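Data availability (excerpt). The following record was deposited with the supplementary files.
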Amino acid sequence: MYAHRIIQPLNGLHVQFDLPPEFADCQEAEIIVLPVKSAKSNSQSWEQWVHSLAGTLSDDFPDDIIDDDLGVDTPRDSLE
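Predicted structure:
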């Protein structure tokens, strides 16, 4: 499987890019477009970003996790 990632400025709602030679024999490609924050406008450090997400778990995340909710660990052979 080939993957090609590129981040480029948008020109309205149009995007144009050239694929690398590895895609020459492909008849179809799946294109996924995701928005990104510009590095220029992002003044938060990684630590600040993590703190900004703290406490943002969705309402369906359980608050009362106990050992009964967890699976049983399977013993594994030692790697040594």
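Summary of structural features: DSSP finds one helix and no strands in the chain.
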